[in-house]
Amino acid sequence: MYKKAINGFTTAMKGMSLTFRHLFASNAKRKVISVSDDNYFKQLEGTNTIQYPHQKLPVPEVGRYQLDVEMDDCIVCDLCAKICPVDCITIDSIKATEAIGQTSDGTTKRIYAAKFDIDMAKCMYCGLCTIVCPTECIVMTNQYDKSVFELKNLNYEFVDMAPEVAAEKRQLLENQLAERQAAKLAAMNKKEGDA
Ligand code: SF4
Ligand code: SF4
After folding, report:
1. pTM reported for the whole predicted model
2. What is the pLDDT of residues 88-100, one digit of tens each?
3. Continuous H helices in 26-154
């Protein structure tokens, strides 16, 4: 009986010491330190609050957060949209009638993007689009706090081509295709006439 009472008392004291340890640790605020600091994950002890948004924790460089696209380097190959498992990348491409420039890695650009949208509300941050991109122009940034009041505002538009400009470029392409077709027919007719 005496032993049981001692055991009960010891157990209660252990439980209380744990409770008090957490109680006092909860007053400790998390410090803003670099992810490369050895103590980064030790910060998980105690209360992990910081004065956000006045203070922000640095995030790992390899983290998966907000996507960004450097359109100057995009060759509008559509690979990112094709591999996206949730179809949240929408691209409307228009073939140019001639080369329209070069990316920073020297790849020739031959396609216009009339539309390049990423719906981050649907994105599951798998990162596949960043892996397949041949010019590495679609990347995960370190931005994670893109809160919005309306869901539609999570659709990011990376291109601002006016509909009339897009229509003009489509017309130019159609004209070029029609000219090529006419030249091909003329060549065939000439060949048949010579035969
Ligand atoms: S990270 Fe994944 S889900 Fe998000 S846009 Fe890229 S491929 Fe799609
Ligand atoms: S994979 Fe890269 S280059 Fe191709 S359309 Fe997507 S962002 Fe542009």
Report:
1. 0.77
2. 999 999 999 999 9
3. 79-83, 128-132
Provide the total of helices (H) and of strands (E) in the chain, helices listed first. 4, 7
Query: Model confidence at 174, in pLDDT bands (50, 70, 90)?
Result: very high
Ligand nearest to the CA of 88: 1
Query: Which tokens sit at 172?
Result: 């130019």
Q: Which amino acid is at 89?
A: I
Residue 144 has pLDDT above 90, yes or no: no
Domain residue limits, the chain: 2-44, 67-170
Is 123 a pocket residue for ligand 2 (Cβ < 6 Å)?
Answer: no
Joined together, the tokens standing for residue 180 give 């090529």
- Interval 7-66: pLDDT, tens: 999 999 999 998 888 777 766 677 778 878 887 777 666 666 778 888 887 888 778 899
How many angstroms does the Cα of residue 189 sit away from the middle of ligand 2?
41
Q: In 3-state terms, what secondary structure has residue 90?
A: strand
Nearest ligand 2 atom, CA 76: 5
* Mutational pocket test of ligand 2: of 138, 139, 156, 158, the residue with most ligand atoms within 8 Å of the beta carbon: 138
Nearest atom in ligand 1 to the alpha carbon of residue 87 is 8
Ligand 1: residues whose CB is within 6 Å?
A: 67, 83-86, 88-89, 118, 123-129
CATH of domain 67-170: 3.30.70.3270
Helix (H) or strand (E) holding 194: helix 163-194
